């Protein structure tokens, strides 16, 4: 490759070679404009109004085809390419949301996934703030989805950082909640707005009482922390009825919409505008 030399070693195995080749392709993905963003609506319970969206990265490469984030995000993290990619995601997503505003579409908060490596950069928050200032992007329209790990490492400087963002109206949520090892003490001290229940607890929940117990406990925890709860991965009416009965506040899932490219998402917004 252009940026690195890798000697062939028969012990490397196919898996390793695939990872290296993916990393090499990913290195050029931004320059070759192979990355794009999709947007998935979040809806309120009961009325099912669109109240926000999540930004999800997509990669199409001529050699590898369409690669799912589950495959390439870990490679981007191991190679630290996620830092550069994460910057691009924030810039592109904010520009898109501002473009929608100019087109007269409803102003919606946008949730962006942030990798732990990004948060660990000492200047992550000041750079985010100066980006928002430069673009004229209001804090109230940004939400950061962090992993449980980031919150649990929640050293005081990290918490101060996020408190600074929250004063600008930026919301903080914990993604895939329930799959990590949350320490309740840390959780209560971290400046938080939302817990997003992991899809694995929502899938088939209507037929699985143990999942219902878990979601009930997460909703109770959220109430006591005064934060809201989002159920992600809602795929059918039975799951919907179940999570609504358990008291979640917002919904996200294929039942309502898959993640959509920008143009289709704006059609979706236009079509659902004002519909209760
Ligand atoms: P996530 O943040 O938990 O995102 C939700 C994932 O669930 C998305 O997968 C979404 O397409 C999928 N999903 C939503 N509704 C349903 C449903 O009803 N059924 C099923 N089966 N899946 C549903 P996706 O887009 O493949 O992304 C996977 C993960 O990759 C994300 O999980 C997130 O952790 C990571 N990721 C995606 N974009 C970014 C990004 O820009 N930056 C970072 N750091 N990570 C990202
Ligand atoms: Mg997410
Ligand atoms: Mg999630
Ligand atoms: Mg996930």
From TrEMBL:
Task: Show where the EAL domain sits.
Answer: 19-273
Taxonomy, superkingdom: Bacteria
Q: What is this protein called?
A: Bifunctional diguanylate cyclase/phosphodiesterase
Q: Which residues of the full protein are shown?
A: 321 to 596 of 596
């Amino acid at each position: 490759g252009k940026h690195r030399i890798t000697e062939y070693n028969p012990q490397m195995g196919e898996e390793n070679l695939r990872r290296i080749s993916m990393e090499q392709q990913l290195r050029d993905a931004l320059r070759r404009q192979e990355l794009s963003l999709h947007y998935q609506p979040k809806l309120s319970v009961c009325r099912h109004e669109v109240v926000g969206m999540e930004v999800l990265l997509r990669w199409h490469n001529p050699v590898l085809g369409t690669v799912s984030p589950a495959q390439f995000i870990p490679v981007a993290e191991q190679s630290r390419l996620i830092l550069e990619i994460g910057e691009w995601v924030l810039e592109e997503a904010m520009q898109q949301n501002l473009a929608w505003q100019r087109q007269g579409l409803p102003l919606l908060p946008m949730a962006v996934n942030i990798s732990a490596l990004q948060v660990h950069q000492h200047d992550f928050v000041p750079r985010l703030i100066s980006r928002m200032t430069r673009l004229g992007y209001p804090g109230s329209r940004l939400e950061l989805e962090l992993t449980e790990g980031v919150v649990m490492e929640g050293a005081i400087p990290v918490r101060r950082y996020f408190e600074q963002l929250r004063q600008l109206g930026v919301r903080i949520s914990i993604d895939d909640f329930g799959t990590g090892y949350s320490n309740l003490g840390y959780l209560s001290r971290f400046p938080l707005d939302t817990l997003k229940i992991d899809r694995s607890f929502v899938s088939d929940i209507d037929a699985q009482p143990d999942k219902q117990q878990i979601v009930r406990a997460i909703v109770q925890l959220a109430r006591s922390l005064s934060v809201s709860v989002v159920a992600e991965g809602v795929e059918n009416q039975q799951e919907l009825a179940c999570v609504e009965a358990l008291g979640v506040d917002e919904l996200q899932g294929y039942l309502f919409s898959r993640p959509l490219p920008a143009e289709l998402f704006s059609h979706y917004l236009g079509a659902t505008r004002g519909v209760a």
